[in-house]
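Sequence in, structure out.
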Amino acid sequence: MVDGPKRRLPVVGGGAPGAAPLRGGTGGPEKRRLPVLQSGGDDEGEERPPWHWIALGTVATFIAWLPLAGLANTLLRRMIERAGDAGAQGSVRLAMVGLNALAFALAGVAGGYLVGRFGGRAGRREAAASGAVVAALAWALALAQGAPAGALGWTLLLAVMVAIGSAASYAGGRAGLRARSAGAPRSS
């Protein structure tokens, strides 16, 4: 290996052109600073139209519903493993429907709260619409899986799911609007 002359790095403040001045020194060009974008909260750009919040509430409800449904179905699987006799099957089915409906309702409240709290001009109506959209999409996914229920059964299921989704999301939107008005600065 051949050792050549070693290069030395310039020392900061060592008087090199463009380098920072030595301690106590005032020479050299001033540092250029990049502009910083700061928002005072008043000028946040154009506000979203209310119908955008229906889509955002739908996505938020699905995101909240997935872990809740997973937890509910894990509990149900454990219940089914424990209940081996035929008499317990009715109570397990009732628990299955109840826990999944509760998970859906809680997710609807969460999605509706998001719309009500941060939705700008959107309010309870858009929150309820997002719950109805989630119910219709979930119903369509269940229908696509082909479970035998008949036309009347599928129609009733859609009506019940839309009622639960809309009511829960409406309640969440109402709570979100209350939280928004409580957090708004009061003008005197």
